[in-house]
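Students often ask why inverse folding is considered easier than folding. One informal answer: many sequences map to the same fold, so there is more than one right answer. In these notes we will look at a single instance of the problem. The structure comes first.
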């Protein structure tokens, strides 16, 4: 690994690649069954999030707003808007849970949403998510922490067969499902929080619902503290694991920075073998491990000749960069949306905490870029290969069914990147 250059603060986002905390919280609450996200802020903020995720998932997105204006923010801080919004939501849709979270407007005013929430007689969680701090990852993690802190009931006993999975925000719905299935193959009952694998997985419902349809239920969240094992993925989810452990000190916790590629998946399988007492994984898991090993060999030549830049959320970078490095790719740069301890160990020549202006200034240092739909224009302008990952991807169908994790997903990802690299060489 080359010298890693860290730039933690950029005074101006010229061409942003990151998203805000309210966006991350929105996604997290959509992974709770029959939950209504209620964004406390201006109507435009909520409309933007709704359109943004509707286009990415090609699914209707359930979200409501308190519709605070600059006038109401100044006169009463928006408290009345919260009460009225909750009343209207309760009457019209009767959700199992209302999730109240803030934006920059209401945080700047200093609204006391905790105080307002304490006066509301309806199942509700609240969380502060100012959009002038953090990003998509931290907004997701803050929302998950609030769900556990405010809903999960403390316990003393544990169920040795119960596992709680804490996925980071960059794991797509199918990837969460694959993780649940992988863990369940070792004899465990698995609950993921949040769980997009049954809410935004692209399944065809009987009719369009006004609420999130699928995900972990409120009752399941209440009973998480009796799990024998908690497995967290991504540095952003470590605080959530600690919050859950505080509910029951007997809970055992194991953390993985990511679960991309051979080494990381082997580590997860080894943990599950030790915890379950199984002598070996199932036949299909063993078969997929051999397929990934073959994929590493098949893709090595194409990737070893390709200089790659990866842009996205830190937890995504941790997995994608490691998987590419395993296959011999030259990962010359990584651009993170926000700073994170995970960035210190990336097998990358250069790490920047910045935006796509940095990707443009480094265009001579890479041949192919992995990132969200925002990188496409840059890639075409400089004749770079492009592999789309992250939010948003408005040009590709089936984002919710994309899988890059474990043995199976790792093989698919490597083949996709290698094929793009080979097409670049053929086309000159």
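Output (designed amino acids):
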């Amino acid at each position: 690994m080359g010298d890693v250059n860290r730039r933690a603060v950029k005074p101006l986002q010229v061409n942003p690649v990151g998203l805000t905390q309210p966006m991350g919280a929105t996604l997290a609450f959509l992974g709770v069954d029959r939950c209504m996200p209620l964004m406390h802020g201006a109507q435009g903020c909520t409309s933007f999030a709704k359109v943004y995720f509707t286009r990415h998932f090609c699914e209707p997105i359930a979200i409501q707003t308190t519709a605070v204006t600059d006038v109401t923010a100044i006169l009463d801080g928006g408290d009345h808007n919260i009460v009225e919004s909750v009343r209207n939501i309760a009457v019209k849709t009767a959700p199992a849970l209302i999730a109240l979270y803030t934006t920059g407007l209401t945080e700047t005013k200093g609204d006391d949403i905790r105080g307002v929430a304490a006066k509301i007689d309806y199942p509700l969680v609240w969380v502060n998510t100012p959009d002038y701090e953090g990003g998509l990852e931290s907004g997701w993690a803050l929302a998950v922490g609030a769900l556990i802190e405010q809903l999960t009931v403390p316990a003393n006993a544990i169920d040795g067969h119960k596992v709680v999975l804490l996925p980071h925000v960059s794991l797509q719905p199918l990837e969460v499902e694959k993780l649940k299935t992988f863990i369940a193959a070792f004899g465990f009952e698995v609950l993921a929080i949040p769980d997009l694998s049954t809410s935004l997985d692209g399944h065809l419902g009987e009719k369009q619902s006004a609420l999130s349809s699928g995900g972990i239920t409120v009752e399941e969240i209440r009973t998480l503290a009796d799990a024998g094992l908690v497995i967290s993925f991504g540095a952003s989810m470590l605080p959530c694991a600690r919050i859950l452990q505080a509910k029951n000190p007997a809970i055992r916790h194991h953390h993985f920075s990511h679960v991309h590629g051979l080494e990381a998946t082997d580590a997860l399988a080894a943990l599950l073998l030790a915890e379950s007492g199984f002598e070996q994984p199932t036949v299909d898991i063993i078969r997929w491990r051999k397929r990934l090993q073959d994929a590493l060999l098949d893709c090595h030549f194409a990737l070893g000749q390709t200089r790659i830049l990866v842009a996205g959320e830190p937890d995504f970078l941790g997995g994608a960069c490691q998987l590419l490095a395993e296959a011999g790719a030259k990962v010359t740069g990584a651009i993170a949306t926000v700073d994170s301890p995970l960035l210190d160990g990336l097998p990358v020549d250069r790490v920047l905490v910045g935006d796509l202006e940095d990707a443009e200034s480094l265009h001579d240092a890479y041949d192919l870029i992995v990132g969200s739909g925002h990188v496409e224009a840059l890639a075409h302008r400089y004749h770079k290969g492009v592999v789309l990952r992250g939010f948003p991807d408005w040009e590709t169908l089936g984002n919710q069914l994309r899988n890059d994790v474990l043995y199976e997903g790792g093989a698919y990802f490597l083949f996709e990147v290698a094929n793009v690299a080979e097409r670049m060489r053929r086309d000159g």
